[in-house]
Each structure stands twice: as C-alpha cells, then as structure tokens.
Amino acid sequence: MALAGRAALRWGARLPSPCSAAGPLCRPGWLPAARSERPYSSRDKEKLDMSTYPVESIRNFSIIAHVDHGKSTLADRLLEITVYDVYCWWLRLTEGVGLSWPGSSGVSFKGAISKTDHNKQVLDKLQVERERGITVKAQSASLFYNHEGINYLLNLIDTPGHVDFSYEVSRSLSACQGVILVVDANEGIQAQTVANFYLAFEAQLSIIPVINKIDLKNADPERVEKQIEKLFDIPRDECIRISAKQGTNVEKVLQYVIEKIPPPQCNTADPLKALVFDSTFDHYRGVIANIALFGGEIAKGQKIVSAHTKKRYEVNEVGILTPNEQPTHKLYAGQVGYLIAGMKEVTEAQIGDTLFLYKQPVEPLPGFKSAKPMVFAGMYPIDQTEYNNLKSALERLTLNDSSVTVHRDSSLALGAGWRLGFLGLLHMEVFNQRLEQEYNMSVILTAPTVPYKAVLSSAKLKKEYGKDEITIINPAQFPDKLSVSEYLEPTVLGTIVTPHEYIGKIITLCQDRRAVQKDMLYIDENRVMLKYLFPLNEIVVDFYDALKSLSSGYASFDYEDAGYQSADLIKMDILVNGNPVEELATIIHRDKAYAAGKLLCERLKETIPRQLFEIAIQAAIGKKIIARETLKAYRKNVVAKCYGGDITRRMKLLKRQAEGKRLMRKIGNVEVPRDAFIRVLKRETDK
Q1: Could you give the CA distance from residue 234 to residue 508 in angstroms, rounded to a whole number?
Q2: Does the annotation place 308 within a ligand binding site?
Q3: Which ranges carry the Tr-type G domain (predicted)?
Q4: Better-scored residue on pLDDT, 287 or 95
Q5: Residue 117 labeled ligand binder
Q6: Mean pLDDT, all residues of the chain
Q7: Per the annotation, does 214 bind a ligand?
Q8: Are 533 and 562 in contact (CB under 8 A)?
Q9: What span, in angstroms and rounded, lies between the C-alpha atoms of 374 and 138?
Q10: Is 69 annotated as a binding residue?
Q11: Using omega within 30 degrees of 0 as the cis cutoff, is the peptide bond preceding 323 cis?
Q12: What is the torsional sign of CA 160, 164, 165, 170?
C-alpha cells in the first residue's frame, strides 16, 4: 500500500480508502484541477485488460444525422461523461496492491475527456474538418460506462452528415448493432435524415431517435416528434429530447444505448475473424487498420493472414481508440479497435478485408459494396517532376478515403496524371484541400464531369473496345456521333425537404434542370418532401447552392443513383486565343449548350488576367463557334507626345502599335489560373 501512497502523493491526488470503494471518489476534487496535472498521460501507454468486458457488456453504435444537426457536439458530451481517465488512473495507482476496480458500487465516474470549453469537434481531427465545421471522416472512440452496477464498453462511431460522404456512413454501420438518429428540434427532418434512416433500417439496426437543440428559442420538439412518427413509424414516446451543447438529458442517451441496442452476435471461442473498416498511414509504423472483431481474439505476437492479399503478418500492437490510441493486451470478439502489423505498403490494407490467424482460415466477411463515383475530374501535378511525390500522396490519401477511384491518364497539355472519381463536388474539393494540407501537394484539377455511356454502332469501335457500350469519364474520349447509335446520361432520384412557402421557386428550379417530378408528400402542415428524377450533370456543380439560395437556406437535398437514360449529348470545347483548353472541355446536353457556352466565356473573361494583346475566348461545338467574349488588351497611349502636326504621324504610330499587338497575339501564351476550373462553372444566377 506504501507504493500506492507514494504515487498518490507524487500525483497530488487523495488515495481512496480500500474499505469503501465509493469513499473520496464520490467527492469532487479527488482529481487534479488542471489538465496538465492529470494522473494519466497517453505517453505512458498503460495497457488495458479488455477481457473484463464480455460480449454481453459491449454496445457498438453510430451517430447519424443531417449536416449540422449536432452529431459531433453530442459525441463530445458522451466522451465527457464516460469513464476512461479514471480507469487508467486506478490501474496505475493500485498496481501490485490488489484493489479491484470499484465499478460495482454504482458510482458514475466521469471523464474520457476533461470537461472544458475547448471540447468542440474532439473527434474531428482533420484540419479541413475544423476549418469547414463539418465531419468528412468517420471517427471511432471506445467509452467505459457504469450502468446499474455493471461496467459496459461502448464503441461509438461519429459519422459525416453530407450526402457526398454517405459511403463513410454505410461503412460505419457495418461495425454497429444500433444507431442514434439525431434530429434538429428547430429544422426538423431533412433530406439526409431520411437517407441515413433507411441506411440503418435496411441494415436492420436498432434506431434511437434523439431530438437535439431543445435549448434554441425556436425549437419545436413536439412537431419533430410528429414528423418522426409519420415518416419513420417510431412512437413519439421513444424520442429523447436533449441539448448536446448544454449537456441536458445526454446521460439518458447512454442508458437507452445500453437498454435498446443489442450486444454483438459473436463468440470469443470461435476462430479469429476481423473486418478492416478503416485505415490510415503512419510514416513510422506503416498502416494502422481499424478493425471490428466478429469472432476470436487477437494479441501482440500472433501471426495473421489477409484474406485479400494472402500475405502473412506479425501483430505488433493492438488497442482501442479513446479517442487517442490506447494499447491493450488483447482484443476480443465484439470489440472495435486498431491493429498495427508491419504493413508497409498502402495497398496491403484493403478496406473491407478479413483478417484471420495463420493456419486457421475462415470464410471471408462480405466486406463493403464498392462506392460508385458520381463525379470525375483530371488531376495533374503542376510540375511533372513532382509526379512521383503526387503518386505517393494519392496512394496514402486513398487508403484513408477508399471511396475515391483512381485511373492513370495523360494529356498533351498537362502531361501524365490521373482521372479521379468522387462521390460529389464537395468530396472533390475536400480531397484536394487534404492533399494540400496533409501532403503539401498543389495540383491542377480539371472541370468535373459525370460518367456518360455511348452505345456504339461502328464495327471498328466495337472491335477496338471489345463491347457494344462504353463508359466515358473523360471528354477527350467522347466518340463522334457518326459512330454512336445512342448516348446515355446518368440520373439520380433526388429528395428535397423544404418549407411549403418555397415550393413554387423550387419546382421552377427543378424544371430548369430537366427534372421529372415523381412524388410530393406533406410531412406536416409546414414542410413538404419532393422527389424528382434528375440528370446527374444538372445537379453536380451548383444545384445545392441554388436550392439553398432560393429557400433562404431552409431546404435540404439528398440523392441516390437511378441508372441511365437516353440523351442528346454533345462535346463543347473552350478556345482561348484559338487554342483549346483541354481542362475546360465538357459534355453537355444540346439544349443547354448555347447558354452554358456563353456563361463559361463570360466567367473565363473575368478570371483570366489581361495581357498586352487582345484575347478571344470562344465556345465551340466541333468547328462551329457558338459564343465569344473578347478580353481587351492593355494599351499604351502612343500618340500622347503628338501635339498638332500632320495626321500621318499619328497614323504611323498607331499602325506600328497594331502590328506589335498582332505579333504578340501570334506568339503569346495565355495561362489559365489554376483556381479557374471550378469558379467558371458557377452559374450567374447563384451569385
């Protein structure tokens, strides 16, 4: 006991009495006041014994919601009221003394993170997430909680809310048995709320509806309860009203998680079967894989095999995320944690892979349905000498974001590069921002396009491609109309939730985007849910901005894939000074070509800096020019020195200047700025 006493004096904490587990722990002030004086530091790497948590005491759940409904704030509060620091302190303090963890006393110990005003977006670790105020990457954390005298291990996954990151949500749900569905008490059910509900419903997960932000002045939780009951058929008495910001009623959420969500269906006695549901790359330790155990146990020193690559590895470290990495002796069936096994290549940790013990093969888990890219864009290094560095950065970033597809590509103007597939325009912008911030790589991104299809009629092309139908992800590959019997464009089924006073404007907007109405449903007396079939290329760039602008920010939008339909498509080129700008070539519907071409030329005129010679900016279909803007030259007043005198002197000076401008136009190069390729696509009406 003397050892523990000395440790207590060194850390400045009072030692609890061994006779009464509840003793001083029940009173405030038993922990050091300052965070810097906390008894346990993650640097100490105290290993936890996870065998004390049988499968019956484990709950795996995700928090899902629409954008900005308070998922990350709720996660912060849950981290604040669950046991972690205290548990590690107790292990360290009582080492060799023989005292047991006093969870059975029914005392609720506090603090996976200290409760301070700085706890905002604790699980949003990326710089881009903190700058934009949105979650783009699902993050997990293991929480310890005592309920009715039993210690529980709660594995929480905080998910993104934007439609562009729905693949993160579907992946996270595969490691869970239930979800917390958060709905804003002020805004009510939104489009992504509906989409996320059906993701969880189809996965047959337990759903706990939580109405957040009840502290707001205009909050109307009763109206939201009616919406939940009408749309999702969940009784209103099952809804929990909370304020995540103030911490009101948050502990009740944890109690519902334990009571309503079932434990995972697996057994420690079974052979090891671990699902890799996420991974990151560390320069020193290699690949760090996030795993969910569906059977058996895993410990340091064991030999494991990847079902995908068939390679064998030795486990270097296993642990849980709390939310920082915390090593453990072992991980057991039903638990979620991380694994480091000396995987040095980014291709070795495939998301959806199954890991099993050497010489104990198992049937691989189903894994994940591969993400279907909705937007394609070319990515090229600014300088071709940076090609290998960019290749390495792309490999490591796509390891962490597996929804991005990568194909080698090359351009006469830009050199060697890649054609990347994204789930949406925001996904593309975030990916580019992460490249710059995390890997210090600046790139050229071409105009985004969607994957079209062409049904070939030319026997020569059929023989060349080996099939009758080809997918076009690069406008440079767009086949001529003479060799194609039909063009096909992708469509999506869009869901719009809006206050009823904006219906007229939104219907007009949808009709302008060639959409076909499929359904219209009043959620309550004030809100309407519209369903439209959209051509994907009409919504991918700026539809969301236009919708928010028309509805004063109140409408929400979500979409899902709806196959292909026949369309009259053409390729439109943009010429600058007579030279085609390959990055701005687009495939577009014929009816929209003139308006889009004129708008692109106007936008490009605003973006390109003026030169000493005149620049012609043109939109062309084949050899036919359909729109033109002229960027005037900087002009020196060469006749300023002429005071009176013969007119021929003035004409001579002006003629010499015109000849010089003409020569410059022939040999001058116009560089389009890097940031122009997204900006020129924004529509005039959305300013």
Answers
A1: 34
A2: no
A3: 56-265
A4: 287
A5: no
A6: 79
A7: yes
A8: yes
A9: 20
A10: yes
A11: yes
A12: positive
Instruction: Tell me: is residue 174 an annotated ligand-binding position.
Output: no
Q: Is 213 annotated as a binding residue?
A: yes
DSSP letter, residue 479: P
Q: Is the pLDDT of residue 35 over 60?
A: no
Tokens of 184: 């804003």
Q: What is the pLDDT of residue 280?
A: 82
SS3 at position 285: coil
pLDDT over threshold 80, residue 313: yes
Mean pLDDT for the stretch of residues 442-449: 81
Beta bridge pairs of residue 472: 452
Residue 561, annotated ligand binder?
A: no
Residue 675 has pLDDT above 80, yes or no: no
* C-alpha–C-alpha distance, residues 485 and 465, integer Å: 15
Is 329 annotated to bind a ligand? Reply is no
| The model's pTM | 0.71
Could you give the residue ranges of the DSSP H alpha helices within 153-289? 166-173, 191-202, 221-232, 250-260
Q: Tell whether residue 542 is among the known ligand binding residues.
A: no
3-state helix, strand, coil in the chain (%, to 5): 35, 30, 35
CA distances from 654 to 615, 658, 672 (A): 19, 6, 29
Instruction: Confirm or deny that 215 is annotated as ligand binding.
Output: yes
Between CA 546 and CA 550 the distance in angstroms is: 6
HSE toward the beta carbon, residue 546, CA cutoff 13 A: 20
Tell whether residue 646 is among the known ligand binding residues: no
Which band of pLDDT confidence, cut at 50, 70 and 90, is reported for residue 545? confident
| pLDDT tens-digit readout, 263-292 | 988 888 888 899 888 888 888 888 888 888
HEC readout, 515-526 = CEEEEEEECCCC
Determine the Cα–Cα distance for residues 633 and 612; give it in Å rounded to an integer. Answer: 5
Q: Return the C-alpha torsion angle 607, 612, 614, 618, nearest 10.
A: -30
pLDDT at 112 exceeding the cut of 70: no
For residues 142 and 153, the answer to whether their CB atoms sit within 8 Å is yes
Phi, psi of 498, deg, nearest 5: -150, 155
Structure tokens at 387: 């090609």
Residue 273 counted as an annotated binding residue: no
φ, ψ (nearest 5 deg) of residue 335: -95, 155
Q: What are phi and psi of 394, to 5 degrees?
A: -65, -45
Burial 499-524 (b: 16+ CB within 10 A, else e): eeebbebbbebbeebbbeeeeeeebb
Terminal-to-terminal C-alpha distance of the chain? 71
Residues 77-116 as b/e (b if ≥16 CB within 10 A, e otherwise) read: bbbbbbbbbbbbbbeebbeeeebebbbebebebebbbeee
Tokens of 325: 């990495």
Phi, psi at 572, each rounded to 5°: -115, 125
Q: Which two tokens stand for residue 79?
A: 């981290």
Is 68 annotated in a binding site? The answer is: yes
283 known ligand binder? no
Q: Which amino acid type is present at position 24?
A: P
* Residue 630 phi, psi (nearest 5): -115, 125
Which tokens go with 383? 């300088």
Residues belonging to the chain:
687
Residue 311 — φ and ψ, nearest 5°?
-85, 155
